[in-house]
Amino acid sequence: MPGVMASMEPVERQSLKKLTFKSLKRALDVFAPLHSQFPPPDSESKKMRLSHKISLEYGGIKPTLAQPQPAKQKSSAPSDPLALPAPEDGQRGGAHNALVVAPAAQSRQTEVGPSKSNALISTPSSSERFSTSALMERIPSRWPRPKWRAPWKNYRVISGHLGWVRSVAFDPSNSWFCTGSADRTIKIWDVASGRLKLTLTGHIEQVRGLAVSQRHTYMFSAGDDKMVKCWDLEQNKVIRSYHGHLSGVYCLALHPTLDVLLTGGRDSVCRVWDIRSKTQIFALSGHENTVCSVFTRPTDPQVVTGSHDSTIKFWDLRHAGKTMTTLTHHKKSVRAMALHPKENMFASASADNIKKFTLPKGEFMHNMLSQQKTIINAMAVNEEGVLATAGDNGSLWFWDWTSGHNFQQAQTIVQPGSLDSEAGIYALSYDLTGSRMVTCEADKTIKMWKEDETATPETHPLNFKPPKDIRRF
């Protein structure tokens, strides 16, 4: 035992500083950031990969030395024209490379017949042979170029409400429009002069939705008091009330061909009412949060709803109001939707983006090319293809429907005495001609907009860049 102890070497004493440096070195070797980095690219492997790609793409074409043609072939018309010669640096070396058709490719051409395009590309030089630019095909952008549109300007400000103006609807004759406000009143205004014609009272909470029937002399209103009312415009009074919602009603729409009314609210249900009998036909339940936007069509899908649960649902009224499709492209609440008056497409707005979909299947088209970066409360599109979106911060953006290009960004101006936070826009609508637009705002005013007649493409040029890629979400 003493002999074993004598044969062992004594342990070298190390200072605490040296031991600390050893521990740091081990930790650096284990957790060094270089482990997550990729190794530098290998030029040889890159050349091999590109040469393999070239052989796959141009298997029937091979570079050969150009041989002088006999005099007989010069006089006769060539059946397969050769490619263009290589650059000048190849000619200086004594021989230039040309691309000729391989024998297999020649026989294939003689069997099938003359090809549509006999033009062949020239062989790249030795420095350009292994670059991807020789394989890339440059194609022009297929994105539709937007049509030039005149900017819109505010030409009239109407005051009369004592609270936030939350809803707007136009008369089918285009002679007046009505607005609903947080002061619990509905006011009717003259379109041409902007003068107040009538004030209707009946709600006990703010009026969030309005619609005027094109087939009857009726106007429908909905509000936070859970009430949906039908107004007779000949007698200027309520003739029907629709009871059934368990909370505030946020939106309503009229079916274009049936005597059917649709309302959506905080109880996460879109209810279908018979206008005359006041009975509830269907309760379209399936959303998990507030139904805040709805529009109807004469064909399938007859009802489209948007909700705070960031989904859009298509409903079929012919089969007991069952869900046809659910669109889950948005990430935030779908507060506004707009149906194109001519095309079978619609747009939906959320805080993340504005998206276009086709009807009736709901296929996703594309996002708008800019982001408004605010909560979008309302949107509308006219027959000319001008889409307007209104935000919670007072921003009013105008878009070209076909291309998704944002050609104007306007900012509403609050009334003197109002707070800057009262610049929000809660509702907007075009008149029947599409040449005028009305916005309902948080500063208790109603603003009317129209196109600027003095604008020209020279004074307001179209700055458009086609997108490189369109994100789906």
UniProtKB/TrEMBL annotation:
Residues 75-87 have a biased composition (Low complexity). Residues 106-121 have a biased composition (Polar residues). The keyword Transport does not apply. Pfam families: WD40. WD repeats lie at residues 158-199, 200-241, 242-283, 284-325. GO terms for cellular component: catalytic step 2 spliceosome; precatalytic spliceosome; Prp19 complex. InterPro entries: Prp46/PLRG1-like, WD40/YVTN_repeat-like_dom_sf, WD40_PAC1, WD40_repeat_CS, WD40_repeat_dom_sf, WD40_rpt. Gene3D superfamilies: YVTN repeat-like/Quinoprotein amine dehydrogenase (2.130.10.10). Signal peptide: none annotated. Keywords: Repeat, WD repeat. Residues 62-124, 452-473 are annotated as: Disordered. One of its GO terms (biological process) is mRNA splicing, via spliceosome. The keyword Nucleotide-binding does not apply. It comes from the Eukaryota. Belongs to the WD repeat PRL1/PRL2 family. PANTHER family: PLEIOTROPIC REGULATOR 1, WD40 REPEAT PROTEINPRL1/PRL2-RELATED. This is Protein pleiotropic regulatory locus 1.
